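Good morning,

Both structures are done.
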Amino acid sequence: MAFGLFRIIAGDFQHASGHQFRDGKLCLKSADRIHREIIDTNQIEKIEEVSADDSRSITGSFGWGLAGAFVAGPLGALAAGFIGGKRNEVTFICTLKDDRSFVGVINARDYRDLSAPFLLAKKDA
């Protein structure tokens, strides 16, 4: 079961973080609605990756570095600081069957879960 928070940076839905992908459904905030709009993934016409970004969180690296120093001394701090705090984000474009669309940013693991049915459909075609 995937549960992922993502943000929308452009499109027909509210440009903000806190949108969700869970249990095969998108839960999207609209500017004109109080409650989230729940959209089943079978209502997605097309989803495509625009870019993938590997970045590091400074606070995450620092925290892992401290933990590594505590466990294994200076060499552990260096190794843990280098490994820790890594984030993988994917920017994607999603077009719905009702012609609405948005550009979203989600972590790579949740993007794989979201896009998997569409990748399989492309291979079958």
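Second structure follows.
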Amino acid sequence: MKTSRYSNIIIGQDERSLLGWRLGIYLYIIDGLLIDTGPYSLRQSSSGFFMENHLQQAALTHVHEDHTGMAAWLQKELRVPVYLHEQSIPFAQKSQIRVISSFNMGEKATFLSATDSGHFNH
């Protein structure tokens, strides 16, 4: 994963290919907060990026695989709380994966949102 900085923002950049299309994957860390986790299929490069940058928490913008794929890994391996909007929690807990997402982005483990435990107010 290519890493760069802009002011106090750490940026991780990688890509996936789907049917000839190159899809850019970007991860942003601001003051220990990771915005989205990237897909599980990039676990080799993203796990190193996460460990090098001392994450304190993660926030998910929505529950598509390319934004949530490493959420369960972050919780299990690094004990990082993962937050998302309360209306998205049921979708994050479903174990069904769309075929196209699984094909391109890898298998996704279900995860529990720290939002569920009352740590996140809207």
